[in-house]
Structures are given as C-alpha cells and as structure tokens.
Amino acid sequence: MAKTIRSLFHEYAEQYPTVFDKDEDIAVGDSTLVEAASVLQDYSFVSREDDADDWDLMGAAYEQFTHVTLKRQQGQFFTNRLVVKAMVDMLDPDIADKVLDPAGGSGGFATAAFRYKRRKAIDGTKPGSPQRERRLGLCKNSVFLVEISKRLVKIAKTAMLLTGDGNTGMTQGNSLDKYSNLDGWITSHCPKGTPDIIITNPPFSGQKTKSMMMDPDILKLFGFGHRPDPEGTFPTITDDDDRDAGHGTLLIRQAPELLFLERCIDWLKPGGRIGIVLPKGILDNRTYINYRRWMLSRCKVDAVVTLHKNTFEPDTGVRTCVLFLSKPLEDDPVPGDYTIFMAQSRRVGKDSKGEPVFALDEKGSATSELDEDLTQIAEAYKTFRDIGTFTESETCFTAERGELDDNLNLNPQHYSPELNATLEKVSKFDDKPDWSVTTIGQLDKNIRIYMGPRWSSRSLVVEDPSDTTNLTPYLTANGALEQRRMTVKWFDMSRATDKQKECVRMLRVQKGDILISRSGTIGKVTYATRILADKYVISDDLVRVRVPDENMRAYLLAFLMSSTAMNLMKLDEFSSVQQHLQPRHIWGLPVPVPDSWEQVSPIIDAGKGMISAMEQTSLADESLRTNGFDSLIE
After folding, report:
1. Bridge-based pairing state of the strands 300-306 and 197-200
2. Confidence band, pLDDT 50/70/90 cuts, at residue 525
3. What is the DSSP string of 533-557?
4. What's this model's pTM, rounded to 2 decimal places?
C-alpha cells in the first residue's frame, strides 16, 4: 500500500514541478504512511474546481499544521482565520480583480481570496457552461503572492492546490526589493500599478532592533527609509532608476511594517484598495504622526478596525488593527473630507491561550458557533459601503476625516459613542449654574503631575534575601495597587551608582499622592499612604498626581476612581503592545469644578473616607506583616 501511495504522489508531483522538487518523496516511513492513509482514506482534502463550499475541515487542519511547524519567522505570525475572512469580505474582490499579498506567508489571504472569487464565479453561472469555465480560469490566474521564505511559498502553493489550484501566482521574493528583482511571473502579470486589491499582514518589528530592516540598499528605495524634513515630509522616490540618488538622511533602521505600508500604496493600481494589518500604535501614537500624514495625503481611509488583544495569542499579545485604504484614480485628489467606518472588535472567538470560546444560547449553554464579532463588523461595513449608512453601535460607528484632531488620531476608541457621550456629559457642567469645567492640570497652580524616570535596576536586585534590614523595598505598579505588599522586590543601594540613587529619589512618592496606572490596564487608582511613601520605591508605571489642597485632593480622588474618569482616560490611551497613558493625558483630563467645595461636600467626605480607610488598611497590613502568623514561625 505504501508503494502505491508513493507512486501516486510522484505522479501528482510531476504535474506540478513548481511546487514539488525533483525526486521529492514523502518523508515518513512506510508504516507511518499506511497508518495515516488508513485514517484519512474516507476524507477528501482537495476541493473540486467547481466546489464553492468553504474550506473548513481541510483549512482548519492545514492551519494547525502551519501554526505548529512554522510558528513564527522573522516577526511573522499566522493571521487568525476570522480576521482573514472578515478582511476578504470587506474588500469584496471581483472575479477579474488582481489580488496580491506581498507578505504572503503560508497563503492564508491568497486561498481565502481565491475561494471568495470562486464562489462568485459559481453563483453567477450554470454548471458546465463556457462562462463558468472562463470565470473559474480568471479566478485561478488573478491571485498573487510574494513571500521571502522558500518553505512558506511551497506551503502556500500546496494550499492553493488543495483549494482548487491557482498556485502559479505564488512566488518567492522580497517585496521590499526593487520591483525588477521580483519573480518574472509577478513582473509580467502583477507589476507596479496593476493590483486591484492588496491584502496583507506584513511582519512587525515590535520595536526590536533585530527585527528592523537595516539593509541600506532596501531603505534607500523608500521615503520611509529616510528621515523626514523639519516639516515632517518624507522624500518622494518615484522609480528604480532614481532611487540611488540622494534623498536626505538615510535611516539606520526602520520597522518593516512601515516599509510594507509604503510599498503597498506604491504597488497598488490607481483606484485600487488595500486591507493591511498593522500595529495599533500607528493609529494614534505621536511618533507616527508623519506617517499618518503621508498616508492620508495619498489615500482615502475607508475603514479602521481595531482587533481584540487575543487575536494573535498565544503567540503574541501585540495590539493590532486593520486599515482599509483606497488609492485615488490618476490625477484625482484625495478628498478633504469623507466618512470613515470605524469598529472595535471585542470578541475574537478564542482566549489568551488560543483555546476556542463559543457563543452561548439562551440557556447559557455553549453552542458550536465561535463567540466573535468580526462577522458582524464585516456585514456592517458592507452595508455602509453599499448604501452609505448603517445602524451604528458601540462596536461599529463612523468618524469624519475633516474632524481628525491635530494628532490625526485614527483610533476608533477616540471616536467611541460611549466614551464621547461621557465627555459630552462632563462638558455640560459648563452650562450649569455655579459650575465650570477645567482640566486637572489647571485646577490649581500647585498641582504636579509626573512619572518617575525610566531606569535599569537589575544590578540592585537581591533575590530571596534572608535579612532585609539594610535593603530598600521596591513595588511594581501592581504591587503598589494591591492592599497587601506581596510582590515586593529588594534593592541593595550600596551597589547603586549616583545615577541610580538619583532615580530612586525621583521614584519615591509623598504621602497624599494619587497614583494612576499608565500601562497595561490603564486608569487603576490608589493613594500613597504614609507607609507607602516612607518605606517603598514605586514603579514609574504609576503616574503621580500631587495635590496640596486637602479638599481638592479628596474630590479629585473620588473623580479619578469613577467610571466617568475611566471612560475619559480610555479616550486618550494609545500604543500597540500595551495601552499607555502619559502625564499630559491626566493633565488635560476635563473635570467639573464647583464654585464652592461645599456644593460637593458629600463627594469630598467620601473621598476623605476612602483616604482614611486606605491609611487604616495600610497600618493593619503593616501590623499583620510584623506581628502576624509568620512571627510565630520566626
């Protein structure tokens, strides 16, 4: 039986010499081959050419194989298939559209686009008709992939064979190189200016130097490979012949996702569309404002979707988004104002360990359907695209291009109806008698809002000390937010340099400081008790708010611990890997202020009650740690 299987494989491999190497064989023993065949013989894994059904069984198995055996390469992560499907649905490729993935990986987007186009071809034609054959031929020959890894290209070609052929467009190459250096099939069938749709998830650097692009021969091909001028403008590099010319200061390194963004826009046909997965920080981080300005000057932003933090788990917790862009036709300007579809995916059908999460029925029992909202987001976008409007919700809503702020913020959360409703409610206090709205930083000229310095403490840490008498305790943000100090680290300050001593001095807090978490889960609030201030060094991951006036401090603590303040802080959070706030965000947070503190005496009393309770808890915690059960053991 094994001999027959190998013979069939050789016969099949000879039909596809661009997929299988000459004399390639199945690399398992005969007994394993027979055992596998006996288990799989009742199943068909190859789609028929005229089969429009989705690739669920074979696709899931294939996805698992590629995930386990090729987990990550050079910062690449295999794209969640729900994201792939939603992106293809939202881009809605037509049968004849040239679809390109320039960072193709194992072919997830290519196979999904091929199946989508094939379904259109079959739904619109009769079985066996010449029209169907012609349209299926168009589907086969209009999907393209470029991938730098030879092994991944082979996997992508195999995936396309199993899906129903169309493997000729799967090519090996570096999409960031000169166009002329790409595979001949691409340069002849999908050159610059011809793809109707580009759909991709490029490799991310994660700000790691080793994952950055550092090849000057590549960097010089891109405006983004150069430092922008003082006005924030990148040089325009038009063609291969001109790219050796000087265009300002060449960068030492650049994030590959930014180079891919520029390349996709350059490669795309005028009038074409892009769907690209990017780090979420590109939407709102101030360091990316010049890149956003460049992109907005060349493309219309059709949609922005932020993805759930579990989307790429368990491989990485990087926060991601999907940008959908349209490139204007030749000589057409980019519109100055238009409506942008925005969405926030809050359910992605799996947990942080990658285990599936299923939707529940009315009785609370798990169904066979994944608990996800990307399907609904795609449907809402298609409705918006087709008729210009849709039923908005907390998940899907719109923003106007002309109303983007000076930071050109494209983060949907910034435009969330729920969060902005909170801002509007706070703003209405300005219209109430005896009230006004100001910012926290302008409440009092003596208010100070800051965070400690970034520093390296590794050389000071003492692991599991037996005697802490002469050591200095240090608390992480979570440790300081806990009522009991169970996560203390110990520093030996006798080892400290002058710079480290200065950092420790700056990291200490004063009794009465309000402390706010600024990374990860932002907006958690605690109060610096006497013991916390006297004993501990506190992480810079907590923003310090120092308010001298006692009543104002109690009122502000009550405000910052409210759901109202939490929603306002969420409007300003940013970044990719973890969400962040800066002191400037707390400084600019709007807060209602009464003309007289007597108007809010119950709130001030509640704030003072919380402060007193925290002080008492801190004393009780210290007593328990000193005189509790451990003292018996000692």
Report:
1. unpaired
2. very high
3. HHH-EE-TTEEEEE--SHHHHHHHH
4. 0.77
CA distance linking residue 498 with residue 196, whole number of Å? 60
- Read off the tokens for 158: 């195999």
Compute the average pLDDT of residues 45-61: 53
- Write the burial class of residue 530 (CB in 10 Å: 0-12 exposed, 13-18 middle, 19+ buried): middle
- Could you give phi then psi for residue 326, rounded to 5 degrees? -120, 135
For residue 272, the model assigns a pLDDT of 97
Evaluate the CA torsion angle 163, 167, 172, 174 in order and state its sign. negative
Distance CA 80, CA 63 (A): 9
| DSSP state for residue 389 in the 8-state scheme | -
Bridge partners of residue 461, in order along the sequence? 491
Would you say 91 and 197 are in contact if contact means Cβ atoms under 8 Å apart?
yes
pLDDT, tens digit, for every residue of 539-554?
999 999 999 999 999 9
CA 575 – CA 319 distance, rounded (Å): 8
* DSSP assignment of 118-149: HHHHHHTS-TT-HHHHHHHHHHHTSEEEEES-
- Helix (H/G/I), strand (E/B), else coil: 563: helix
Instruction: Out of 69-83, 267-281, 427-441, 506-520, pick the least confident.
Output: 69-83
Tens of pLDDT, residue by residue over 181-215, are 999 999 999 999 999 999 999 988 776 778 889 99
d(CA 253, CA 224): 10
DSSP 248: S
Contact 476, 487 (CB under 8 A): yes
Greatest mean pLDDT among 68-72, 379-383, 393-397, 575-579: 379-383
DSSP of 574-596 = B-SSS-B--HHHHHT-EEEEESS
- Residue whose pair of structure tokens reads 């039986």 in the numeric block: 1
d(CA 326, CA 90): 13
Query: Strand, helix or coil at 44?
Result: coil
Helices (H) and strands (E) in the chain, counts: 21, 22
Q: Given its phi and psi angles, is residue 624 left (phi above 0), alpha (psi -120 to 50 degrees) or beta? A: alpha
Sign for the pseudo-dihedral over CA of 593, 596, 597, 603? negative
- What span, in angstroms and rounded, lies between the C-alpha atoms of 94 and 143? 11
Which residue is associated with the tokens 């994952």? 211
CA 147/CA 279 separation, integer angstroms: 20
Q: Which two tokens stand for residue 151?
A: 């092994």
Residue 240 carries which DSSP code? G
Which runs of consecutive H residues, i.e. helices, occur in 177-269? Answer: 184-189, 216-219, 256-267
Rounded Cα distance, 289 and 293, in Å = 6
Quote the mean pLDDT of the chain: 85
Tens of pLDDT, residue by residue over 130-153, are: 898 898 888 889 999 999 988 888
Determine the Cα–Cα distance for residues 284 and 56; give it in Å rounded to an integer: 36
Using the predicted structure, report yes or no on whether residue 567 has a pLDDT greater than 80: yes
Q: How far is CA 141 from the centre of its chain?
A: 32
